[in-house]
Write a structure and sequence with these properties.
68% helix; Arc Repressor Mutant, subunit A; 194 residues; disordered N terminus; globular; Tetracycline Repressor, domain 2
Length: 194
């Protein structure tokens, strides 16, 4: 009796990323392994290695996809308002992205993926998202030298506000606050800061 290989999956790379993304949000990055994904997708344990050299490579690709989505969300938010409203719009979009994808957000910003050997695509996607934030800050502060200290301080202030609020929320440091209340509070803080 001939046995057939279970590796007739179609687009295994996309399936691995989809399954890993789902597992990331349900159980965190620690739950992801190439062998576990292979079992779930009913492929040989070596099949994921044809697409990702390591677990770190898979996680880096997930993070790069996250930065690409964040950039899309920021650009869409900027498109809904005039240039004077870009900073507030990007701040709101940033927070909403993080709340909709908390474990992906943690992977993107609190993992060691961007330290040391950073895959080119991850670095490019992260830079692309950050450049949109910079555009919003520069539009808000047009009289400041874009390469000077004051612009760097304005950029840090804007990013820290959104990122800090998100991390406080995700880490449960704000006490018992409903998500809707948190979003409304962040909207007000962002509007006041912009």
């Amino acid at each position: 009796m001939a046995t057939t290989s279970p590796y007739h999956h179609g687009d295994l790379r996309a399936a691995l990323l989809r399954e890993a993304g789902s597992l990331l949000e349900s159980s965190g990055a620690e739950a992801i392994s190439l062998r576990g994904l292979a079992r779930t997708l009913d492929v040989s344990h070596s099949a994921p290695g044809h697409h990702f050299a390591s677990r770190a490579a898979l996680l880096a690709e997930l993070a790069a996809d996250g930065y690409a989505q964040l950039a899309e969300d920021l650009a869409a938010a900027m498109a809904t308002t005039g240039r004077d409203g870009w900073l507030a719009a990007t701040g709101r979009a940033y927070v909403r992205f993080a709340l909709a994808n908390p474990e992906l957000y943690r992977l993107m910003f609190t993992s060691r993926l961007t330290q040391g050997e950073c895959p080119d695509r991850l670095a490019d996607e992260a830079s692309g998202a950050y450049r949109l934030l910079l555009r919003a800050v520069q539009q808000r502060e047009p009289d400041i030298d874009p390469t000077g200290y004051r612009m760097a301080a304005a950029e840090l202030r804007a990013w820290s506000l959104a990122h800090g609020a998100v991390m406080l929320w995700l880490d449960g440091q704000l006490g018992v606050v409903a998500e809707a209340e948190f979003v409304a509070l962040v909207d007000q803080v962002v509007a006041d800061a912009a």
